[in-house]
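Q: What changes when phosphoenolpyruvate is included in the input?
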Amino acid sequence: MSRRPIIAGNWKMHNNKAQAKELIEGILAGIKDLDADKMPEVVVAPTYTALWQVHDLIKNEPKIALSAQNVSQFAKGAYTGEISIDMLADFGVKFVIIGHSERRQMFNETDEAINEKAKAILDAGLIPIICCGETLEQREAGVTDSHIEGQITKALANLTADEVIKSVIAYEPIWAIGTGKSCDAVEANRTIGEIRKVVAKLYSQDVADKIRILYGGSVKPSTIVEQMAQPEIDGGLIGGASLEAESFVALVKGAM
Ligand code: PEP
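A: The predicted holo structure follows.
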């Protein structure tokens, strides 16, 4: 089963206009000569305020796609401060990250809202990157697999098999995010294998074999090759190491 890998950079709340321009131009220069047929799907997720500019700079470059970091579950209306999926589609966005642990923990994003966002994204023809992952306490208590099963089951509720095949899951152990302490590649592979079993139980083995599942959590140029060598890992969702063109391009090359 061949699944096209993804290297996705989550810029989080970094980069003003000038910084976003410098970073995307550095990435474009770094991937310019890479063989498109061997490249992973390269995705960048700037802040909302940088989306238009980044869209403008990459619109003629098929080697790179745009993601948003969040979206409202609502189509339109009196939702001050929110951004709808139509607005993102207008900006050439292809992917939307949902359920990131920072949004779950700091902004009270619930499993139900994540499921509604997934539906809104898929209905609009875009692709959700659905994040899941356990805390250190949950890992130490031995409840990692059951916790993730709950998150995935709720996130995918009422999605069709075709919608799930189009979606992307990112397994991001919370204790590995931004800590410099990556999850051991073999253990990340095992956990992602468990996520595939959940998808197989909910849908079918065929759907589980087709959905792309990324690993996220302190992925670095020094870890990517071992991570990509794992059969269940289809790429990375990367925070810190996506903020420098040189390291992000090294991650892209490490996934080739
Ligand atoms: C993330 O925020 O999704 C992430 C994985 O961050 P970092 O790579 O910095 O751990």
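Observations recorded in class: The chain has one domain: 6-254.
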